[in-house]
Each structure stands twice: as C-alpha cells, then as structure tokens.
Design brief:
The complex is a heterodimer of chains A (about 375) and B (about 90). Chain A is about 35% helix and about 20% strand. With about 375 residues, chain A is of the alpha/beta class. The mean pLDDT of chain A is about 95.
C-alpha cells in the first residue's frame, strides 16, 4: 500500500434533529465547516466536492460549491442514498490517487419533515410511483417487514432476537451526543412498542431525522487509510429473497489482507435490524445467532454510535453516518474497521450494497 | 382480472414491473396476463410516516408464475386472483 495514498483526514457531523430545523444547504455547510476544521484545511485547499442529498433541489453540487465558496476541479453528485457515502468514497479515493484532486470534501445530508419524507418515498422511483404507492405501501416498512419474515423463517429467529441488536445499539448511543435516541431501551419496551408492520415495531424502523455528515479525503500519511472496497449494485434484479446482497466478501477480505475477526469495530448500515444481520452473515461474521451472541458479550462492536436506529436517518446522511463514526473510533482505540452501505429499494429490497475496510494509518 | 407480466421473446424470462431490456440482451417482449398467484408473506401496515392508519392495509408478496409481486391483499386465501387497480396489484 503506497505510503502517501488517499486517507480520510477530516470528519464532520451536525446534531441530528427529529424535525427539520434548518434547510438542507445549511446543514451541509455546517458539516463541511466542521470537517475542514477537523482536517485543518481552508476552503481554498479543497479542490474536489461530492454531495449526496434527497432534498438539495433545485440546487445541485455546483450550486453548493458556489454557495460554499469552493473552487474545485473534481465534482460529483451522488443519488445512491444509503450507499452514497461509500460510493463517493470509492470515487474520491481514485481521484486523489490519480491526482485529479488533492483534497476532496464529501457531504451527505437532508432536512426531511414527515411530509417531505412521504413525498420522497411515494416518488422514490418509477416502479414505486406506479406500483407500490397506489397500494399504498407508504414507504419501505412493509417491504422490510416481509423481508424480516423471510429472515426469521430462514434462521429460526424471533422478535426478541432482533431486539437484542436494537437494545445493544441503543446502549451504544448513550455516548453519541448527536443521536436522537440516547436513553436505554429495555426488552419490555422493545416488545411492547407499537407495531408498524408486523413483525416490525417502531424501534425496528429508522426514525426520520434531519442532519448532515462530511468527510475529507486527501493524500497523506496520517488519517484513516482505505484498505479494500467492494460494491454490488442490482446483483439479482430484485428477483431473490433480499437475504443475500451479492457483495464479493472474499475479494474484500483478500484485498484488505485481513479477516472479519481482525475488525475492531463494525459500522453496518442499519435501516432495519434484519439488514444488519444479512450483511454481517454475507461478510463472513457468522450466522445471525452467533453474531447476536458476540455483540451481547462485547466481542463484536457493532454500530458503536448507536447506528441509524438510534441516531436517526437523515436521508442520504445515513450512508455516511457509519463512516464518520468509524473514523472517530479509529482515532481512539480501534485499529481496524469495516463500514457498509446499503439501500435504494428498486422494488422489493435494497439494490445497492457496498463495504470498505479501514485502518488507522501509523503516525 | 389479471396483471400483465412482461415476457422476453428471446429467453421467456418473466418480469413485473416491466424492464427496459432483458438481462439476456432481449429487446422484444410480449405480455402474459397472469390471473392467479400464491401468497408468500403478509404484513399488516398500521402506520405510515407521520400518522397511524385508521384502517390498516394488508400488503403481501405474491408469487405469480415465478415472479414476486407486491400486492394489496384483500383475501384470507393462499391462492389469490390478481388484478391491477390504478397500477396497484390487488390480490383477492
């Protein structure tokens, strides 16, 4: 691995709020400012910008560059929601490697109220607009409820099992000042919460939030290094059961030169608990019960900031939340981290999945 | 009473909703009006963003000639008749 390769040198994150308190561009600007400050860079040092947001319209990446006062020679707008953070990272890493840009600022965030969220999910894509919204499905909860039923049947899981994950993540959120929900959740509270779409109760569905995240990718030997990256987009044409993501886990670990057991922290995209367990199984962490036992014993540190299930899903920021949290941990006590992205329901389940293995660069 | 499955003229692959091209490379399609399917999973949707539903909606995955369709379920049977109501698959 080249010593002066692309590294993540800065992170920023706004506080997440339940209601949109500021417009999307202002949230993105705050996250941008925090990340640049963290990276000790000035706006004039930035020569690449990438952004992902469902609520930036009518502005686009170039408008944001203008409004942020950034003169750039690399520009990207990503539309891949929960997979956008890592997708932008994949491209930014190569841009920095190729010297198309030296310092790339990546932003993701949304200000979404209930009405905005409904409009977004009703018009998510043509298939949704034409064949799901008229049912009505009112967003992805019913689809993931049925996916969770398939997951339960495949592995003999109960609601209590998913509760173990949600409760563990909520406990981790106590240490995350930006999270929406930081109070512990008891097994009784989990099971007694109102059902949204059986078997999913309210704690199983990401709370809609507003907020933004940012990272800076630049050449350097301090920061967080990217050891391996893999993605799978539309791997099965939406014709499977959604319990496989199609990611090339063998290739990911081969490139990383590491194994799942070597990961100090794991930040997994968590729109629903079953999706966490599906991804972890495919990435080689073991079957769901094994994973849940290891999380409970503290042997496996998953979603160390509480994940989206506690912090909230600020639209496209959901695809960067785990990356920002991983960098925090890699600057603290972790040496290695796995981060995943997932999302973009084409019809029945997420059509996008990606994963990155990170390590703390030696000082 | 049926729902239209797209059938690839090259390989016979069926799809719902329609695709632009078949994964086999096929570009010409016919329509198979499918009348019946089998319910695989059912969930009762009680809440949509921002509000509880007064009348919960039953949503099902229905297998129709090998294709999985998301439908509004208006039946307690496992074998259901399918129709399209303003774009929404309905299983009765």
């Amino acid at each position: 691995m080249p010593r002066n390769g692309p590294t993540i040198v800065g992170i920023g994150e706004t506080v997440y709020t339940r209601q949109p308190e500021r417009p999307t561009p202002e949230l993105l600007a705050e996250a941008a400012g925090l990340a640049l400050e963290d990276a000790r860079l000035r706006p004039q040092d930035v020569d690449g910008l990438g952004v992902s947001s469902f609520s930036l319209a009518p502005d686009h990446a170039i408008d944001l560059a203008w409004r942020l006062g950034l003169r750039v020679r690399w520009l990207m707008e990503d539309t891949n929601g929960g997979a956008s953070g890592l997708n932008m990272l994949q491209h930014a890493r190569r841009a920095v490697e190729a010297a198309d840009a030296h310092a790339v600022l990546l932003l993701a965030g949304d200000a979404l109220g209930a009405k905005d969220f409904r409009r977004l999910t009703d018009m998510y894509n043509a298939a949704t607009r034409d064949h799901l919204t008229p049912i009505p499905t009112g967003g992805p909860n019913a689809l993931f409820a049925m996916l969770t039923q398939r997951h339960m049947a495949a592995h003999g899981l109960t609601r209590e099992d998913y509760g173990r994950l949600v409760i563990a993540q909520r406990a981790a959120a106590a240490g995350n000042p930006n999270a929406l929900y930081r109070e512990p959740l008891s097994p009784e509270e989990y099971l007694d919460a109102p059902l949204v779409a059986d078997p999913l109760g309210r704690p199983d569905c990401v709370p809609i939030a507003s907020g933004a995240d940012a990272v800076v990718v630049a050449r350097g030997h301090v920061g967080v290094r990217i050891r391996a990256f893999r993605a799978a987009y539309n791997h099965d044409g939406q014709e499977g059961d959604g319990l496989r993501t199609g990611i090339d886990a063998g290739g990911l670990w081969h490139d990383a030169g590491l194994r799942p057991a070597d990961m100090d922290v794991v930040e997994v995209y968590d729109d629903y608990p079953a999706i966490v367990l599906v991804q972890l199984a495919e990435l080689g962490f073991g079957d769901p019960r094994e994973v849940l036992d290891r999380i409970a014993s503290g042997a496996l540190r998953v979603n160390t900031g509480g994940g989206q299930l506690s912090a909230g899903q600020a639209g496209a920021a959901g695809g960067m939340l785990g990356l920002v949290e991983a960098v925090r941990r890699l600057r603290d006590d972790a040496r290695t981290a796995l981060v995943t992205g997932y999302g973009m329901v084409a019809y029945r389940y997420g059509a996008c999945v990606n994963a990155v293995v990170l390590e703390a660069a030696k000082q | 009473m049926s729902i239209p499955l797209q059938v690839c003229a090259e390989c016979g692959h069926r799809a719902f909703p329609d695709r632009l091209l078949c994964a086999c490379g096929g570009r010409t399609f016919s329509t198979d009006e499918a009348e019946r399917g089998v319910v695989e999973e059912v969930t009762t949707l009680r809440r949509v963003p921002g509000r509880m539903l007064e009348d919960p909606i039953r949503v099902a995955t229905v297998e129709v000639e090998g294709v999985r369709v998301i439908a509004r379920l208006e039946s307690d049977a496992r074998d259901v008749a399918l129709s399209l109501d303003r774009g929404a698959p309905v299983a009765r």
